[in-house]
């Protein structure tokens, strides 16, 4: 196989990974949905080997679960995993906010302004998918602006997993993020006030986690001896 073929394969697998990640992040594919290879092949006009590689890559990222004999399905993170993802987001997003300079904010002024306008437009209308997309886009945008590709890549994975978590555990039907907290983070970063930006970001993530019903389903404590003895 020539190196060109390898590159083409990588690009094609990434295209499928991106399409599935996006559909999952936007709640078009919900946790537990079966991912049937033949359907993905048809829908994305892709080849079966590439689809299989894409599903394996998503499984390594914990976005997809591959079950022996049952095939692939969209992952259903446990409450423990949900808490771990939020703990990781606090660490990663604090580091992202920390590394955004006022200069980077100036260079990205137009992009940020466009995003904030779209976000306000989405939250004032009520298409839930638009809202979910715009609100998570804010966090991804900060990851890109910070200029650290590793932080951005880790965040990309955490954001897709967060979407799964919100789809499974959100208490109410209101969108997770509050847009005014986003505005406060932007304002603080424009002034180079990292202390405030980090503080608002951490409070914001705490708030998002608090909206989830993450009570572990306790194993019922039964006294088998007593129950069976009473029969
Ligand atoms: Zn947010």
List keywords for this structure.
mainly alpha, 3 strands, Four Helix Bundle (Hemerythrin (Met), subunit A), Arc Repressor Mutant, subunit A, 69% helix, 3-stranded antiparallel sheet, 231 residues, 11 helices, binds zinc ion
Plain-language structure description:
The protein folds into two domains: 3-74, Arc Repressor Mutant, subunit A; 79-210, GntR ligand-binding domain-like (Four Helix Bundle (Hemerythrin (Met), subunit A), Up-down Bundle), CATH 1.20.120.530. Helix 1 (3-25) crosses helix 3. The model has no long low-confidence stretch (mean pLDDT 89). The protein has eleven helices and three strands, in the order αβααββαααααααα. A hairpin with a 3-residue loop joins strand 2 and strand 3 (71-74). With 231 residues, it is mainly alpha-helical. The relative contact order is 0.12. The structure holds zinc ion. Zinc ion is lined by residues 135, 138-139, 177, 182, 204.
Please identify, by name, the CATH architecture of the largest domain. Answer: Up-down Bundle
The low-confidence parts are none
- Per the principal axes of the C-alpha atoms, what is the gross shape? globular
Counting helices, strands and paired strands, the structural category is: mainly alpha
Estimate the helix proportion, in percent: 55-70%
Give the cofactors and ligands. Answer: zinc ion
Q: Span from first to last CA?
A: 69 Å
Largest sheet, strands/sense/barrel: 3 strands, antiparallel
Let me know the number of strands: 3
Number of helices: 11
Q: Helix-strand pattern, N to C?
A: HEHHEEHHHHHHHH
How many distinct folded domains? Answer: 2
Mean pLDDT: 89
Name of the top-level CATH class of the largest domain: Mainly Alpha
Q: Any idea what the radius of gyration is?
A: 21 Å
CATH superfamily of the largest domain: GntR ligand-binding domain-like
InterPro entries: GntR_C, TF_FadR/GntR_C, Tscrpt_reg_HTH_GntR, WH-like_DNA-bd_sf, WH_DNA-bd_sf
Keywords: DNA-binding, Transcription, Transcription regulation
Domain HTH gntR-type: 10-77
Pfam families: FCD, GntR
């Amino acid at each position: 196989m020539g190196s060109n073929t390898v590159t083409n394969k990588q690009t094609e697998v990434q295209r499928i990974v991106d399409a599935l990640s996006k559909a999952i992040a936007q709640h078009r594919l919900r946790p537990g949905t079966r991912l049937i290879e033949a359907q993905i092949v048809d829908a994305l006009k892709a080849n079966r080997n590439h689809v299989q590689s894409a599903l394996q890559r998503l499984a390594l990222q914990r976005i997809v679960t591959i079950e022996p004999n049952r095939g692939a399905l969209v992952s259903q993170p446990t409450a423990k995993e949900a808490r771990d993802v939020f703990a990781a987001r606090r660490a990663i997003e604090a580091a992202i906010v920390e590394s955004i300079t006022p200069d980077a904010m100036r260079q990205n002024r137009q992009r940020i302004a466009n995003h904030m306008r779209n976000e306000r437009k989405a939250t004032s209308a009520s298409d839930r998918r638009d809202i979910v997309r715009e609100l998570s886009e804010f966090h991804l945008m900060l990851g890109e602006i910070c200029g650290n590709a590793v932080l951005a890549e880790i965040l990309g994975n955490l954001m897709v997993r967060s979407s799964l978590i919100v789809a499974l555990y959100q208490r109410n039907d209101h969108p997770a993020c509050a847009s005014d907290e986003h505005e406060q983070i932007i304002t603080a970063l424009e002034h180079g006030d990292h202390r405030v930006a980090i503080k608002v970001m951490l409070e914001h993530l705490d708030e998002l986690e608090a909206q989830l019903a993450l009570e572990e389903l306790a194993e019922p404590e039964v006294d088998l001896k007593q129950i069976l003895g009473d029969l």
